[in-house]
Design a protein that fits this description.
The structure is a homodimer of 547-residue chains. With 547 residues, chain A is an alpha+beta fold. The first copy, chain A, is 40% helix and 20% strand. In chain A, strand 16 and strand 17 form a beta hairpin. The longest helix of chain A has 27 residues. The radius of gyration of chain A is 29 Å and the shape is globular. At the A-B interface, helix 1, strand 14, strand 15, strand 18 and helix 8 of A face helix 1, strand 14, strand 15, strand 18 and helix 8 of B.
């Protein structure tokens, strides 16, 4: 990927499929050069202050491996395409969040513990769900008090606190924390008096209550966004005002002074601390306290509204993993069987804390491995002998697809359309040229990439039928082979078919793609090879896996 | 403490020794009422949305225990002085930071491990030093690989990471991290690719290198403040620009996108992430990248300047505790004994991570317990029969000191001077009325409060001698008893003594205090009791303990 477009003393310009053209300064080029890194650890080895302070680019040439740049008339920087790709476009740290304010917006699917523990794809799905929606549910977790440690071990490490590595959540008299009573608890985040707050909480049900005790989860980010939409000023006060949270029991005196809503440097919500039980005081002057209290109350009303969140009962063996920086959890009051205490029974959950970074790292490793496997399948298909065929054109299907992708890229089509262009005739290798190659290709691609890539592929034949029907001179510009297959494919669309087709959501993209397809039949036209598209394809696969 | 000054429908106004007058709205009063809290856990029990939305104060009366307020004509709020104190003035989360840019600004005292482990005062001193200066040093830690866990257990919990609960820092071939080689490392913070980053790092030396390997610590906050002073724009760019940090080894793919300098909601430095080895790319447009790079380089130049920081050698048994959100650590390259590898020898440190909140909680518990012990000693002295004596005045020493404190408070003297006023004649109870009661009192108070309280006490007699010499009508206003003691105390100062006295740093405060002292001799004047000063005294003691 990333063609070198031009260079000057102040840097080099690159273009790459699916990305806007980018200008890398000489300092950027030095920074992404492999010579900066230790080959064993992958860490930067070069000392920061040894780098040239105001480097100037004095030469650039394309090589078989990538590019070679001269800096300050002497330093040589060899850059492979992959180095540049990693610099230009670091893998996302987490899949994009999906906010859900109401139960029906949350996918409540449980995953069986055995599948989670033994199958990487199930594990990946669970971890991706926590990253995306803020929580996931396992069932069938062995009802041993330490089983939660086995769940954590699959993605990270227990964050031990004053409550222990794990802690029993059950009703006790004169408890040091209201969580350890039978009282109902409004949705809250745990340990707001800790900094850093535990990023994940796990709750594993060993014994269910005889009555009540339902779990209620609320997406705190969705609630905060709803507050932002309704009252941006109130949202801003919650983000700007530190609040004292505290908890202590003689052996502990934990305190923080942090806002209910934490924003990142870009002004996006990074964390929510919401726990009225542990709230002590507002660290602000009286007028701001009053404004803060109104906003806090409005946020609480959103969070506690009956239609907000998801309510369900944790049965024995169920375990919920929650992002404690985002998802608030509560429970209804419960009643144990009257004889429960004497038998050592009664509602019994085991809790544990862990960190988000471990989960996101495990997810990135699993996603990367699966994306590599899928990319290898795509690449094998692309390299298969069937792609050497020409099917009546003057160039092989492989050459035709590379040209189509190059034209799609030059036309600045969306990344998924560039990938669809590159793979639109994949079906020829799958069904040996059967009539419905667009469907066999799309079906095969759908699992790997999702509909953003598969559906444009599926439509590329129908689009020809549409254009023949609706564009007077289109048919005349088609290649002989394309005209020959038209009849097999159903001929021109009827007026009704064409109107329905034009109303489909992917219509415009399909037409763009078809123009590239039709133009990509010139044997002599040079085009980037498959390798140039690897980063693009990998990113699309990873996004589909976790999206 | 906290006298109720007046009330209206929109709240109540309180004044308390050493604090500015404060207005609590009806919502504030409800919020700090003990009825809001569960007596066993100390947590808020009242549901947020059940609180009255726009409460109005309809009544207020002082009671023996504190105050009683009526809200919305019905709700009764009983408030003890202590409830109000905790709301108005929560204990500070951490002692104030002492920044140190150069070695001579850092106190490098080591504490023996046995003292740390077995004596709460030594342990408190070590933890307070980490909170204040960002690091502390222990010696004599048993050279077992797991001894670092014993150090952590005294204040918190190990933060386990991919490197283990603890990890060996020694030179290995083809290491997955440059820390595990013999290379020199520029000062850096650890694990910037983790979020949350481990808040504390411990490094325990089991075997020293035969040559090199010196540890270098730099206060990253002091360096960042120096950058702020020299280039506020550069500082702002570092605080506003997220940077990609990453590290991976096949089983891990850790990544963050966070700024080098993290600010809190008040714009103060909250954390620094500085690790060029793990720095990948700047998440910003080219122009901002260039500005960022210049600021990053300027910060690095400050950090790496030879005159910055503290350099020392960790010998076997030494252990350093560092605040990894603040203090950067580096090492010189080292050489092991050539035979070291074969013997399993060579430089060998054991590292571990932990969290700051546990340390600050342990420190708060230790500080609170010690402050309570010291306050009890002060209170016992104040209640001792010697304080019933009048020494020639028409009221007891105890009544005289309470009046002096009340006058100091009304004159809005600094908190330490109010405390000095309350305790200025404590020496009478210590030496039974010997001539130098100001010195015996000051000596006794110095250990508890430090010089801010003890030195005004020490000067209160000399100030009388000064005023007699320099203020024509002062002597005439003195009480008979005070005139009687003047001769014993050395009589009026000479001109030379008076000039030297007036040039002393505490002169103005001493004169203010003396005026209160002289006026506090009216038997009928009511004054707040000792209990009203407890929060003030406790805060001054705690500040001295950790300051």
């Amino acid at each position: 990927m990333a063609r070198l477009i031009r260079w000057a003393t102040d840097g080099a310009w690159f273009a790459s499929p699916g990305l806007p053209q980018i200008h890398l300064t000489p300092a950027d080029l030095i920074e992404c050069a492999p010579s900066q890194f230790d080959p064993a650890s992958g860490q930067r080895r070069a000392a920061l202050l040894d780098l040239p302070q105001a480097p100037v680019l004095t030469g650039a040439e394309q090589t078989a491996e990538g590019w070679r740049f001269a800096v300050n008339s002497d330093g040589q920087i060899a850059l492979r395409a992959a180095d540049l790709a990693a610099y230009l476009d670091p893998a996302p740290i987490a899949p994009p969040r999906r906010l859900w304010l109401k139960e029906d917006e949350a996918d409540t699917g449980k995953v069986d513990y055995q599948a989670y523990a033994s199958d990487e794809q199930f594990r990946r799905a669970v971890l991706a769900r926590v990253a995306r929606q803020g929580w996931a549910l396992l069932s069938g977790v062995p009802t041993r008090p330490d089983a939660v440690e086995d769940v954590v071990r699959r993605f990270g490490f227990i964050r031990e606190t004053n409550y222990g590595r794990t802690f029993a959540v059950r009703s006790a008299p004169a408890a040091s924390n209201l969580a350890f009573t039978d009282a109902g608890l409004a949705p809250h985040s745990d340990n707001p008096y800790r900094d850093p707050v535990p990023g994940l909480q796990l709750l594993h049900c060993l014994v269910d209550a005889s009555m009540g005790g339902e779990t209620r989860l609320v997406d705190g980010f969705a609630a905060a966004e709803a507050l932002h939409a309704a009252d941006p000023g109130g949202f801003a006060v919650l983000a700007a005002t530190p609040v004292h949270f505290a908890w202590g029991d003689g052996a502990n005196a934990l305190q923080t002074a942090l806002p209910v809503i934490t924003l990142d440097t870009g002004g996006e919500i990074a964390a929510i601390r919401f726990n009225h039980r542990a709230f002590k005081a507002i660290a602000a002057p009286p007028e701001q306290r009053t404004r803060w209290r109104a906003a806090y109350r409005a946020l609480a009303a959103l969070i506690e509204a009956p239609e907000t969140g998801a309510t369900f009962r944790l049965g024995a063996g169920d375990l919920v993993i929650m992002d404690n920086t985002r998802v608030l959890h509560g429970r209804r009051a419960f009643t144990d069987d009257p004889g429960a205490d004497k038998r050592g029974g009664g509602r019994h959950l085991v809790g544990a804390y862990a960190d988000r970074d471990g989960l996101l790292s495990a997810l990135a490793v699993l996603t990367g491995a699966e994306a590599d496997r899928r990319l290898a399948r795509i690449e094998a298909l692309f390299a298969s002998p069937a792609m050497d065929e020409a099917y009546g054109e003057a160039l092989s299907i492989r050459e035709h697809m590379l040209q189509t992708a190059a034209l799609a890229d030059e036309a600045e089509l969306a990344p998924a359309l560039v990938a669809a262009a590159l793979l639109h005739d994949a079906g020829w290798a799958l069904d040996g040229g059967a009539a419905a190659h667009e469907h066999s290709g799309a079906d095969w691609l759908e699992d790997t990439f999702g509909s953003a890539v598969s559906e444009p592929v599926r439509l590329h034949v129908a689009t020809k039928r549409y254009l023949v029907a609706c564009e007077p001179d289109y048919a005349a510009r088609l290649s002989a082979a394309s005209v020959a297959t038209l009849a097999q494919q159903g001929g021109p669309m009827t007026e009704g078919e064409a109107a329905a087709f034009a109303a489909m959501p992917g219509f415009a993209g399909a037409v763009h793609l078809r123009r590239c397809d039709d133009a990509a039949k010139e044997p002599a036209r040079p085009a980037p090879g498959f390798a140039d598209y690897r980063p693009l394809l990998r990113r699309l696969i990873a996004a589909h896996l976790n999206g």
